[in-house]
Amino acid sequence: MRLTIFGTGYVGLVTGACLADVGHEVTCVDVDQAKIDRLRIGDVPIYEPGLSALIDRAVKGGTLHFTTDAPSSVRGADVLFIAVGTPSDETGSADLQHVLAVATTIAEAAETSKIVVVKSTVPVGTGERVKARLQFMQRANKIEHEVVSNPEFLKEGSAISDFMRPDRIIVGAETEHAKKVMHEIYEPYIRNHDRTMYMDIKSAELTKYAANAMLATKISFINEIANLAERLGADIEHVRRGIGADQRIGYHFIYPGAGYGGSCFPKDVQALAQTAKRAGYDTPLLAAVETINARQKRVLFEKLTQELGDVRDRTVAVWGLAFKPNTDDIREAPSRTLIEALWEGGARVQAFDPVAAMEFRLAYPDRPNELVLSADKYAALEGADALVICTEWQLFRAPDFEEMALRLNRRLIVDGRNLYVPERMASIGWTYSSIGRQTTRPRTTGGTT
Ligand code: NAD
Q1: Gap from CA of 213 to ligand 1 centroid (Å)
Q2: Ligand 1 contacts CB of residue 11 (under 6 A)
Q3: Which of 88, 195, 281, 358 has minimal Cβ neighbours within 10 Å of its Cβ?
């Protein structure tokens, strides 16, 4: 089938590459000329494991194309996916300007009727707005387009396997024809087990927000219990395993940490609350989830100052800048809250992240002296007064603690991801502060690893 995808971000690129890989004829369109130029020479602008190779294969196979020429991409396809960004506006609602701009482009260019699939995360009622925009723009030539809601559930870091082996495919559609076409598009991925769920458009739109709000709630819940555990002398890791064993709760997604970040949970929880507000309904649970998360993002700084006191003129090493491992996405990352607080307090930061360093530099171009980005994890520790861990990259899990002690001014780690065993850290001479567990202090001053 001939498909056009608007937006070559995390969702658009993965969707385009995966659908091209199974043989669909895919054109990816973006308004960002520089991005398209890079993609055309095989330079993938985001870090997502496996994505470069997949794109390369599909481009060489002749099924994947990149362009900024939106009108001819509209005319050349049967199905048009909208996968552009829907960031928060100043009220916290989803800003639909990019989605509606694509709808306008489609209406202006289309000469035959199309299926327009909204893959961006959009508030309930957006399908109707897209349809109204298409109809209004095409009232003269009477072309009727169909609108489908097909929210995306991929996770950055494992996006390709999530897309190719989805837990479910949600399709909000009004006609049997649209359902049939969506089935054909996804058929290569659901041949063994059809996981498609068909529903009305509004339910599909709400399903996406409900899923993200539920996941964010789990994180805020465990963080709240973790903070309580610290104050009561309990250990959240025992508590986590204890509750996870209950099948009604489960072990997934109840890891305590430095708060959720990324491009989805923060904006989607806010946008859902705004949708509810417009519907005249109060959402105290969503408000609490957000409040707890905002507080949690400050916990690392608070823990650090408990140990160091004033951070003025201190140097602090930070491991991990991405909001989670296996991505270069730093949108709303807890590392940003920490580092901005450190700068505010007059500290200097030496940071290491295996893939997100460049993104971080681009986000803070005016901090040449207060931010040193190190090429390896040990170099970031040189002369620093403490290490703070923000992201649980695999390469932080079993470091050489003796090497670390030689580089740092003092043996102090604040760990936002609970990577190490507190008693062991105490036995090898470290002060170790983590989430939801008691801070341990050196039992010896030296020791081996
Ligand atoms: P992104 O910011 O990485 O990429 C969006 C792209 O759209 C950009 O390249 C931008 O230049 C392009 N764009 C903007 N206006 C355009 C237009 N008129 N025509 C063509 N291209 C245009 O966004 P993303 O992270 O891929 O997210 C896209 C949507 O998918 C959002 O609604 C998001 O909430 C949702 N989503 C994201 C994820 C994720 O993990 N990133 C997962 C599920 C759903």
Answers
A1: 19
A2: yes
A3: 281
